[in-house]
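Sorry, explain these tokens?

___
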Amino acid sequence: MKTLHTRLAVMVAAAVAAAVVVMAGAALLTVAALQAHQIEATLSADARAIAAQPDQWQATPTYGNKPFGPRWQFLDAAGSVTASPTGLMPVTAAAGAIAAGTSPPRQEQVTIDGHIHRMLTVPLRDGGAVQVAINQERTRHTLTMLAGLLAAVCVLGVAGAAWLGRVVARAGLTPVDRLTESVERVAVTMDLSRPIEVTGADEVARLGRSVNTMLAAIDTARRAQRTLVEDAGHELRTPLTSIRTNVELLLEVERRPGEAHRLPPQERAALLTDLDAQVRELTTLTTELVELAREDATREPAEPVDLAEVVTAAVARVRTRAPAVVLDPSLVRAMVSGRPGELERMVVNVLDNAAKWSPAGGTVEVRLAADGPRWWRLTVADEGPGIADEDRPHVFDRFYRASAARSMPGSGLGMAIVAQTAGQHGGTVTAAAREPHGTVVTIRLPRPD
């Protein structure tokens, strides 16, 4: 499996290799084009000079001993060779047409004495033509040497780029290696309280800060989970102890039928009633613990919800459980983006709490209205004794129960679930005193964009 160092080194080497190959190819093509242009210019200049004074060049001694020098010869109008001072050259069909005056000057590639030449044929003023040729072997040899040199440079360049890419990758990924080691150390030690050391302001530093933020969030969640488990164990212990005591007493009576008279029927019925109440309280506590510890991945999807319909359903549920209390709703249509089940549970918890503290025949006012252009406000006002000033800051804490509430059934989680649900929907919840007595719980939820 390729490491990040290797992949980065390979990418750097490939980029440099591509650049070197492209530059080498461009250099080779440029030199070849310049040489071809130079040959054409030389042929054109030599042909014009010879055609201007053909008699002088016909008497020029042979240059056959110069294998890379120019060659020339003269043709008559019939295409026959009249003079060839530097050795015979092939007379092509195109050259014959130029000598006959039926074709313009033309360059051709021909083979003379086993060597490739570039040949230019131009017409003479008095008829006929002159042919000039230059051996291209030197040009080809030069291009071959240049191609070999450039190939060697490419190989060396790629090798150097691979080494340089390795060095750059190692140096550039050093902060990533340190970050990786730190994260691996945290994974082994499970010590989330020590943040990873971060220096600089580049992308790696940003990643390090993000990891620190994630570790802090995980540490906070783990602490909250530990606290929840500890508090839940403490709260569960009381009903379980009571249930165990009552069950042991009933079992003892069943094991000793002769002493059954020591537990009168009315006391036995009281024990069973107490057992039923304790089991109900335990069931409620367990349900609320599950709801409080629910992960986002298992929650229902958010959707457009009319909060008025949610409150109406919650009011109907609470009326059946608290028939002695009057619920007085006044609602307006209020669309929010949320989870209907969770929102209804939140409202039910607030109404249950208000109904529990309201006297028989008391009224719980439920009001839903706009709170500015961006919020909806739901208020639940009861006529109970109200919340003491020292208890009000802790109303929404998990398992917190005021002194006056410890004698009444409840888990201390209902209002914590209200606060959690409101926060998960982008809202807030507060509790305040109501004049002349009672409590007002206010939930604010944002309108959808």
Summary: The CA atoms of residues 47 and 132 lie 6 Å apart.
